[in-house]
Amino acid sequence: MLHFDYYNTPLTTKDCIKKLKDRFPVYRKNFGDVYYRFVDKKYVAIENAKRMENEHKKQGNTKPSSKNPSTLVYKLVIELEKFLK
């Protein structure tokens, strides 16, 4: 979702799926070529995720349970990209 917009309000799984389908109507879980469809927006998503993490830090949110929305997947993506170069 962060490939499209920055979010800082709590979302349920149902909310996330609806927002994804609004932007990407053919979305379904485990969609085969989803990486290639969004690769051009990867850096937008990384920057939005970093921004989100920084906002949680500013607010003193240290427990994962108090961070909604939240993601650290961008850290994995950055690490994996090192092996692709």
Unreliable stretches (pLDDT < 50, length at least 5) are none
Estimate percent helicity.
40-55%
Give the H and E element order. Answer: HHHH
Question: How many β-strands, per DSSP?
Answer: 0
Distance between the termini: 26 Å
Categorize the overall geometry: globular
By helix and strand content, what is the structural category? mainly alpha
SS strand fraction: under 5%
Count the DSSP helices. Answer: 4
The major sheet is characterized as:
none
* Average pLDDT reading: 89
How big is the Rg?
14 Å
Keywords:
single chain, 85 residues, mainly alpha, globular
Note the topology.
Elements: H1 13-23, H2 34-38, H3 42-58, H4 73-81
Question: What does it look like?
Answer:
With 85 residues, the chain is mostly helical. The chain has helices at 13-23, 34-38, 42-58, 73-81. It is globular. The mean pLDDT is 89.
